[in-house]
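Quarterly update from the structural biology core.
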Amino acid sequence: MSDEELIELIEECNQGRHQLKRVTKDVYQLKLPEQFFYLVKSSREFIGIIQYYNYNLHWLTVPELRGKGLLSDPIKDIILPDIMKVFKKDHQRITISQGLDNPEASYNLAIKCGFTLVEDDGFKYEMMYKP
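Predicted structure, tokenized:
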């Protein structure tokens, strides 16, 4: 999904248009056909989304709250351990395209969440999380 589609999905969830499963007070799951999401709540609204699709992760914070580190603890403490358990995995890989608007922010978030750099080919960062 594009960033615009993920923001729209966050808005739909804030409007109560999807059935969500509560994981913790601030983290919820959403299952759609062939797609799996975690939504992160702050106060009364969802402010971030993590898409698990084709064994990869795509995360996004609503634009007005970017750069505040709001996703790092939920991803590190709740979402990654849940993915390992639900999908019976011993590691998780991600690819961060260096062609993004701000690849450093995603790279820094990945490092905070326990990912390590596997490869930097100048176009993308290949990273791995292993608990």
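The mean pLDDT is 92.
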